[in-house]
Amino acid sequence: MWETASDKGNLRGGQSYRDSIGAEDFFRLVSPHTNRWRDVTLPRLGSGNISIDWLSQNRIQLSRDHRCLSLCWSGSPSPENPIMGFSGLAERLLELKLHDLHVHPTDIRRVLAGASQLVSLDLESLVALGERENEVMPENDLNDASRSTIDLPCLTKLSLKSLPWGILGPIVQNLDPSNMEAATIVQHMGDNQDQATPAEPLSSFTARLVATARWVIIHPQSTRVTLKPLSDVDFQYSVELQGPLSMILPWLRLRSLPQITREHFVELIISSDDLGDDPEQVVIENLLHFPRVGYLVLRGERESWRWIWLLSQSDAVQKDPADSEVVKSWLWPELKYLEFNGDSINEFTILSVLLARHGPQAARASMASDKAVPRRLAFLWVRPGKKVWRAEVIDRIRGLVAPGRFQWVNP
């Protein structure tokens, strides 16, 4: 294995080789022989180590003997980051790590399609170059039907961050996360463009990730939405979708989450600080219609008041089917857990919400209008603040929540 010295701009050999040589001399001498190595690890490529021009003119030779390939550019990100080309296949490759490089998508797809034993895949900040024209590929590089799809059945660790759609899509299109130990996705969704076609593989893969656990935590923030499971599950994943909420939330609600076939629930975190001073109406509307919300965490006074008030309204959600009159319903009737700050919402307000949703009048009104009664809260958490709640009101609140399920949570 060869790796860069961390203290000098040279490349240094393994334990049996200690004499430093110039980086470009090293690459010139050994690059024709990389197909003989088991591990190729170059973690600190950068302008102080080797020139971009040299890397752009020489390709990494792959072979079936490779087990690990790790190439990371540590220079300043720029349009001049090195172009890294690959020839050959690595059928026995176990680990692949590529960061901050300009690559040809066909190279990446071909290498991954032939690496069915891959265990760990880490790709970050790759820039896609156009397809090479009139290039004659070696015989062992040619695609055939068996290598046309990226499968990776042995993959246990996955990290894909800031990739072009032409690289990300083919990778996640057929991946099965059920046998993985960890997965991380960070992707910019783009502004004001139709993401239906390029983002479709990601929408399906996100649905498959969510389906690995019964609960998914969804946290909309000013410029991104994050998804992750509860901390007590074996398989930990993280999806960060970057871009405007007005585009990401409809994409999640209409394209991705409806593909989940197994029962699941959403823990939704809504924060005044995260949504900004004046959230767009499209953001509010998509949160209103968000499916399968079973756990709601409210932070900040403005958004706490907004959503607590909406929870008290039997006609908070309006649907307008094409072939019938407008249908009005409760907000999130499957809500089981509610958490908020005791200074943002007082005891009388939450009591009125519980009476509206679960009191005797709510049951009678529901029977008269054929509306489903919202399920009784299984747990109500209140984070205590400076304000003191009246004991008699707290007793009434306890009676409207499942027995023993009203709790003050220390900050």
Could you explain the architecture of this structure?
By secondary structure, the chain is an alpha/beta fold. 27% of the residues lie in helices and 26% in strands. The chain has a 14-stranded mixed sheet. Strand 15 (224-229) and strand 16 form a beta hairpin. The radius of gyration is 27 Å and the shape is elongated. The relative contact order is 0.06. Residues 1-19 and 132-147 have low confidence and may be disordered.
List descriptors.
alpha/beta, 12 helices, 4-stranded parallel beta sheet, 27% helix, 14-stranded mixed beta sheet, 411 residues
What's the short version?
The chain is an alpha/beta fold. The chain contains twelve helices and 23 strands.
Describe the secondary structure blueprint for this structure:
Blueprint lengths: L2 E2 L5 E3 L8 E2 H8 L8 E7 L6 H6 L1 E3 L6 E6 L9 E5 L7 E5 L2 E2 L1 H9 L6 E5 L2 E2 L28 E5 L3 H8 L9 E7 L11 H11 L4 E7 L2 E6 L6 E7 L2 H12 L8 E7 H4 L5 H8 L4 E7 L1 H11 L5 E3 L7 E3 L7 E5 L5 H12 L1 H10 L9 E5 L7 H10 L5 E3 L3
Parallel strand pairs: 4-6, 5-7, 6-8, 7-9, 8-10, 9-11, 10-12, 12-13, 13-16, 14-17, 17-18, 18-21, 21-22, 22-23
Antiparallel strand pairs: 1-2, 2-3, 14-15, 15-16, 19-20
Helix pairs in contact: 3-4, 4-5, 5-6, 6-8, 10-11, 10-12
The averaged pLDDT comes out at: 80
Task: Give the % helix.
Answer: 25-40%
Q: Could you tell me how far the N terminus lies from the C terminus, measured between alpha carbons in angstroms?
A: 50 Å
Strand content: 25-35%
Widest beta sheet: strand line-up: 4-6-8-10-12-13-16-15-14-17-18-21-22-23
Number of separate strands: 23
How large is the radius of gyration?
27 Å
Number of helices: 12
What best-fitting shape do the alpha-carbon axes yield?
A: elongated
How does the helix and strand content classify structurally?
alpha/beta
